[in-house]
Amino acid sequence: MKKLLSGNEAVALGAFESGVKVASAYPGTPSTEIMENFARYEGVYAEWAPNEKVAMEVVVGSSMAGVRALTSLKHVGLNVAADPLMTLTYIGIKGGLVIACADDPGMHSSQNEQDNRFYARFAQIPMFEPCDSQEARDMMPLAYEVSEKFDTPVLMRLTTRISHSKGVVDTSDSKVSDTSERYGFESDLKKFVMIPAHARARHPKLLEREQALQKISEKSDLNFIEWADRSVGVITSGISYQYVKEVLPDVSILKLGFTYPLPEQKIRDFAKQVTKLFVVEELEPYLEAKLREYGIEVAGKKFFSRIGELSPESVGKGFEKAGVLTEKLPSLRPLSADVQMPRPPLMCAACPHRGLYFALNKLKAIVHGDIGCYTLSVMPPLKSIETCLCMGASISMAHGMAKAKAAAGIDDQRPIFATIGDSTFFHSGINSLTDVVFNQSNVNVVILDNRITAMTGAQVNPGSGVTLQGEPTAAIDLEKLVRSLGVERVRALDPYDIKGTIEILKEEAAIEGPSVMISRGPCVQMTKANLNPVHQVNETDCIGCTLCLRLGCPAISQGDVISNKDGKKPIHYACIDPVLCRGCTMCAQVCKSKAISVKSSYPKE
Amino acid sequence: MTKNKKTTNILIVGTGGQGVVLASEILSYVAVESGFDAKKSEIHGMSQRGGVVSSHVRFGNKVASPTIMAGDADILLSFELAEAVRWLPYLAPGGKAAVSNQRIVPPIVTMGAADYPGNPEKLIIEQARDAVITDAQKIAGDLGNTKLVNTIMLGVISNYLNLPKENWKKVISGAVPQKFRDLNLVAFEKGCELG
């Protein structure tokens, strides 16, 4: 049977067919759909964990019970899970264990574009890199075999264009592996308890394993040569292979799918038989540097950028520059100067975050941001946050800045705020808040509690009250949790009440010591009904002052020109799109002319 | 296609929430149903929040890159005027453009920080002389549901593609809720008449 699957769907299918029984992950673009799809298969357990480290440890436990397990994460998520990974590589596995990691070259939805291939080398674990959905699915059973045969976790490294591209997958040979002969936990202290004495004994085994894997990589069908014209040879992997096939279909290619350890002999043999050798790879010169180490003459990053995603056009241009492209690349039509208009992503109409950041903007405060939809508050007109580093960092950075102000005697009266989403707080913000309590700093923390992990596409979190399977479960009460950590000043606020929110923010800012405010408003993507009836602008009262536009609401725009005004610049009425408006009332609250009210008859419904 | 090429490239663009991804999904399945290899690629994540959305669809005997090389799109399908203008450079010489004439003006324009293109229809015609620019929203509204825009526009581009009409109808029927099936088939036919 032929199916059109994304790389992520293919990884999930491959995991299911490999007999994986347990999977745990924290959502992160572009990896999220792996877990969402895996969870839909019969007879498996899948969960959203509070963070990647926890997820990794969960599947390590499952593997120790002899059960095949999977964790999936985005590139920066592996930083969070690096702690268990770096010792897991000593311990090894019992049930096969695969870490499906999706890098984001080009940073479509990420804060950096680190190249996680180096994690395979760092942890000395085998790495597979599929070049399309078919390979992504087919590599999974092989990854589990290698994992169990060599007592190692395996890194399945994807990138955005693999994860989110769909391709035809032939599933006619589909069957689910029975791995039950491995089931059951057996005590093995020297393997499972990493005290120094045991770890010292494991380290040499790790080096032996690496040598054994190198031989396997040498023979693996995942590293194959497509012989053609031998005047040009290209060594490539992952999505870059597709771009090479696109622009140079007639050159010889060594396509690598088993990319750690590398097949040294195969690479040497290939290099010898071609006249000009190129490496085409996204981001860092991971392959190229290794070839140079072998003493092979090669060109790579000289022609193909270390920055961002590659594309058929950039690979084409690289080969053009290198003088090997005979066919002319398509020439671009001129881009009209008229379309310099950017269209940045926006918070949704009626998003509860809008009220909070509009209010924060009214305070002269230093506001730290975190990872989530609310990072969009850096954009005008809300323009509220000053920093964003990584998951959970808003609170710790606020703490550090408050301590620096005190320690260095910096005269700055601006209060310090940290703003963090509920999911990000459960992820790692909770640890940062522990520091604020432990070491008492004058920090005001706002937890934006929308009950969901919104930016990755609405995944449940420990505050949602439902599991990945949609089953009811305990919803962690943020207020009780924060109080139990030892925060004395804890209060809820309603971000849809702008005046009330400003008052609460001001009160807490004025008080010395830590305080936590929980800004409660469910994600509007999750609520079907409008919050209130749709609003409209009464043109007899609107004076065109643009105050409502400062909310940055996608439903509000400038309408017709107000006629009887003799200013030099034309003044426009505000205008509310009744299809987009969800009745959050914030615009009515900020309008000083009282020109915005409930629409008399609304077309919705 | 008129050009004798190995792969047919269709770029579908619009803004978050317009159904770009579903339209490209339907097209890809029609290609597979018609016996072709097909790939499609788009970016999920932040772009969903009202930003620019583009989806690349490619089909042929064997497709390598999931993305279209700039300047090599045989068809540009846009659900929004300014987005059509933005992506026109992707169109190959002699490529076809099909555009729903909806205007979605971003707040950055209403705040005065940027301008919406002055005469997008003119810019489109300059680059793609036989472009079909249509009031698909009105047609959809007349049929009873503005969400039919996507199906109408797929009908328009179906005229430029060598994919059997019955495969289009089969895939569309399977992709939409049953109660909207007949209406979508009518919308598809309507689109075919526009091309």
Question: Any descriptors?
Answer:
heterodimer, A: 605 residues, Rossmann fold, 4 domains, seven-stranded mixed beta sheet, B: 195 residues, Pyruvate-ferredoxin Oxidoreductase, domain 3, six-stranded mixed beta sheet, globular
Structural write-up:
The complex is a heterodimer of chains A (605) and B (195). Chain A has 605 residues and is of the alpha/beta class. Chain A is 35% helix and 18% strand. Chain A is built from 20 helices and 22 strands. Chain A is globular. The mean pLDDT of chain A is 95. Chain B is of the alpha/beta class and 195 residues long. Chain B has a single domain (7-194), classed as 3-Layer(aba) Sandwich (Pyruvate-ferredoxin Oxidoreductase, domain 3). In chain B, helix 2 links the parallel strand 4 and strand 5 (91-100). Chain B has a six-stranded mixed sheet with strand order 2-3-1-4-5-6, with helices on both faces. The mean pLDDT of chain B is 91. The chains are: A alpha/beta (605), B alpha/beta (195). The interface between A and B is large, with 59 and 57 residues.
Q: How are the secondary structure elements laid out?
A:
The complex is a heterodimer of chains A (605) and B (195).
Chain A: E1 2-6, H1 7-17, E2 22-25, H2 32-38, E3 45-48, H3 52-64, E4 69-74, H4 75-80, H5 82-91, E5 97-103, H6 117-123, E6 127-128, H7 133-150, E7 154-159, H8 160-163, E8 165-170, H9 189-192, H10 196-219, E9 224-226, E10 229-237, H11 238-247, E11 251-256, E12 258-260, H12 264-272, E13 276-280, H13 286-293, H14 312-321, H15 352-362, E14 366-368, H16 393-408, E15 416-421, H17 422-438, E16 444-449, H18 478-485, E17 489-493, H19 498-510, E18 515-520, E19 535-537, E20 556-561, E21 572-576, H20 586-590, E22 596-598
Parallel strand pairs in A: 2-3, 2-4, 4-5, 5-7, 6-7, 10-11, 10-13, 14-15, 15-16, 16-18, 17-18
Antiparallel strand pairs in A: 1-8, 6-12, 9-11, 19-22, 20-21
Chain B: E1 7-15, H1 20-33, E2 37-42, E3 52-60, E4 73-78, H2 81-87, E5 91-100, H3 107-110, H4 120-127, E6 132-134, H5 136-143, H6 149-158, H7 165-175, H8 181-194
Helix pairs in contact in B: 1-7, 2-4, 5-6, 5-8, 6-8, 7-8
